[in-house]
Amino acid sequence: MSGKINVVFGFAYFVTTLALGMYLASKFQQPPEALQAWMQSPHHAMLKAAHVHGNMESLLNIVIGLVLMKFALKAWIARTVSLLLIVAAIFHSGMLYLTGLGVGGAAALTPIGAIALIAVMVLMALGFAQYRNDAKA
C-alpha cells in the first residue's frame, strides 16, 4: 500500500499546480500597469514559489511512490516515507499557496514541510542501505 497513495496524491497535486500555472499565465493578459503591479506584489511571489515547489513535490511523490512500490524496503520505513512525503507537500508548497492567497500565518508552517522532506531523504538512504545489506545476505 505504501507508495500507491503517493502516486495518486502526486498526480492530484500536480493538477493543482497546473491550474495555478494557468492562473499565473492568465495574469499576463492584464494591461501593462496592472501587470507591473501584480509582478511586484508579494502574492505573486508566493504563488510563483508555490507553483515551482508544488511541481517538484508532486513529482517527488510520484517517483518515490513508484520506488516504494518497486523495492521491498522495511515496512516502517516505507510507511513513514509515504506519510512524510504528503506532509512535506502540504506543509511546504501548500502553505505557500495559502500565503499567496492571503492567509498570512500559513508561511510560518512551511519549515514543517522542509524538515519532513529532509527526513524523507534520510529515511530513503537508510532504507536502501538496509535493502542492500539484506540483498547481500
Quick overview of this protein structure:
The protein has 137 residues and is mostly helical. It contains 6 helices and no strands.
Topology (elements, then pairings):
Layout: H1 4-26, H2 32-40, H3 42-70, H4 75-91, H5 93-100, H6 110-136
Report what the structure shows:
There is one protein chain. The chain is mostly helical. The protein has one domain (about 5-135). It is about 80% helix and about 0% strand. The chain contains six helices and no strands. It has helices spanning about 5-25, 30-40, 40-70, 75-90, 95-100, 110-135. Helix 3 (about 40-70) runs antiparallel to helix 4 (about 75-90). The chain is elongated. The two termini are about 25 Å apart. The model has no long low-confidence stretch (mean pLDDT about 90).
For the record, give the distance between the C-alpha atoms at the N and C termini, rounded to a whole number.
Answer: 26 Å
Low-confidence segments, given as residue ranges, are: none
Helix tally? 6
Strand content: under 5%
Number of strands: 0
Characterize the largest beta sheet: strand count, sense, and whether it forms a barrel.
none
**Order of helix and strand elements from N to C terminus:** HHHHHH
- Percent range of helical residues: over 70%
Counted up, domains total: 1
Average pLDDT taken over every residue: 92
SSE-based structural type = mainly alpha
- What is the radius of gyration computed over CA atoms, rounded to a whole number of angstroms? 18 Å
Using the alpha-carbon principal axes, give the shape.
Answer: elongated
Keywords: Membrane, Transmembrane, Transmembrane helix
